[in-house]
């Protein structure tokens, strides 16, 4: 459950700017008639039976397959792009384009020899597919990552001494390693645009929670991610965090890993998804099925969901996450019941969707389109009824009346 102080501040902030997970929704008659307490994705309604793609959705929502691993992404049935969708799609995000469309970026959690890196699908303003292409190659086990306010994608390698690569979602510029973000088993990244810091999770049983303070800005307004100070969190019994400077943020294989350099820092059991929204950074830890909230003003961590103590523990295998502008957390399951689960600002927990028939897979990369009318995600090791993906991943789009369940 959210603490009361966090709730009141969050309720105020969510009425302001929409932040990175923009869910900009216009009013509708139904939304206006609903009481504010009801306008949360946690009240979206019961899931219906599986649709033609094997996805259970609330009434009024529908799904479509937009890409399958190994197959060229289609503009239409007969018109295909040149890009064969990568295997094992993982973390993702969307980016608005000048023509009113958007790009959905997706990592590939496999090794370089099998096409590891990241790819992107570009959409027209009406939601139809425009193009698809690679934005990162030659890397290994790119798991999650995070978008930046200056319209780039941070793709994280989940390997020992892994790097973070800054990628151009529009495919115009080459990806670059950002040394300032350290070398460790990276999972996800989230940029705080108010205090100009980057938060990072580490997928280890004794992983750490990191913060990067850049040396400054570039002329284009982006942060300098090559030079600065990488810190690690040390949490006290009340959840308050002291940030400790790492002595060697970029160790090699013969040197002490970052998570072991400062034993007084706090261990987190398998850091996964990480997202910034309205003054808070949220992240998940899969080893203990918890969802955490960092108040970036107070530097205080609280647990907003714990499967072991929740009165409605339907969320397990916590993994990637995103946040709607209404403040709802959307947490994807790695295993569990193959759901995307909503946690609202009152701590209510409810399923948003469920993928059936793919129990050996995991849900990855949840992200709303910039206008909030569509939700994207992947089944990392899934396939559709026609064999698309072949067990190496398939990516979906969900459409429906999201705006009726969002309080701005």
Automatic annotation (TrEMBL):
<keyword id="KW-0732">Signal</keyword>
<dbReference type="InterPro" id="IPR019546">
    <property type="entry name" value="TAT_signal_bac_arc"/>
</dbReference>
<dbReference type="InterPro" id="IPR006311">
    <property type="entry name" value="TAT_signal"/>
</dbReference>
<dbReference type="Pfam" id="PF05787">
    <property type="entry name" value="PhoX"/>
</dbReference>
<dbReference type="InterPro" id="IPR015943">
    <property type="entry name" value="WD40/YVTN_repeat-like_dom_sf"/>
</dbReference>
<dbReference type="InterPro" id="IPR008557">
    <property type="entry name" value="PhoX"/>
</dbReference>
<protein>
    <submittedName>
        <fullName>DUF839 domain-containing protein</fullName>
    </submittedName>
</protein>
